TrEMBL record:
Keywords: Carbohydrate metabolism, Cobalt, Isomerase, Manganese, Metal-binding, Zinc. This is Ribulose-phosphate 3-epimerase. SUPFAM superfamilies: Ribulose-phoshate binding barrel (SSF51366). GO terms for cellular component: cytoplasm. Its cofactor is Mn(2+); Co(2+); a divalent metal cation; Zn(2+). The keyword Iron-sulfur does not apply.
Length: 216
């Protein structure tokens, strides 16, 4: 039970965001996963800094900020100011990834890199030692409630091998279509952090659902 659970706020009731955050504060959730989308990198727009600032005021758990945007370098300080603990950028959105990761660390945050389903984990071989987290997308980013892509399990296992062979402490997070069944398989393959949106917030008892993910 060493793994972390990061419920995704994308599936909360935005009219009652504070109520959902209060529930998460009192639950077994470890981090609050915040999905920021720009309508350019992904075909959807979610929420941005004004909303993150409000979340920061009531959240009692670290904010795990998943940026699905082009040019994330432009927003590093804003993510920090909005309470970001982990700032995760997409491999596919960064031309100078090493520079971006350095700037995130310089701003005082943990740095994560996310991979789209088609991006091989082996592309991280020359940067993984600088990363606090690798986020493996198990759906195409942009929307909650999509079907889990089974090859993600294989990607987690390959990332685990890369990390263990080098004795690193980089965490492996998986995002998209996580439920008790896929979650179990991901943990067996070596995942450290499970993100879950619709599975948590569409359930009749989100607090219990988070606990069952935590107890996998
Ligand atoms: O980053 C994303 C989607 O792009 C996610 O964090 C989703 O919010 C996960 O939703 P579910 O697949 O768990 O419903
Ligand atoms: Fe996400």
């Amino acid at each position: 039970m060493n793994h972390k659970i990061a419920p995704s706020l994308l599936s909360t009731d935005f009219l009652n965001l504070q109520q959902d955050i209060d529930m998460l504060n009192a639950s077994d959730a470890d981090w609050l996963h915040c999905d920021v989308m720009d309508g350019v990198f992904v075909p959807n727009i979610s929420f941005g800094f004004p909303v993150l600032e409000q979340i920061k005021k009531v959240a009692q758990k670290p904010l795990d900020v998943h940026l699905m945007i082009v040019n994330p370098d432009k927003f590093i300080q804003q993510v920090k100011d909005a309470g970001g603990y982990m700032m995760t950028v997409h491999y596919e959105a960064c031309t100078h990834l090493h520079r971006t990761v350095g700037a995130i660390h310089e701003a005082g945050m943990k740095a994560g890199v996310s991979l789209n389903p088609h991006t091989p984990v082996e592309l991280l071989t020359d940067i993984i030692e600088d990363l606090d987290l690798v986020l493996i997308m198990s759906v195409n980013p942009g929307f909650g409630g999509q079907k889990f892509i089974p090859n993600s399990i294989n990607k987690v296992a390959r990332t685990r091998k890369m990390i263990d062979e080098r004795n690193l402490h980089t965490l492996i997070e998986v995002d998209g279509g996580v439920n008790l069944d896929t979650g179990k398989q991901l943990l067996n393959a070596g995942a450290d952090v499970l993100v879950a949106g619709s599975f948590v917030f569409s359930s009749t008892n989100p607090t219990e659902t988070i606990s069952s993910l935590k107890n996998l």
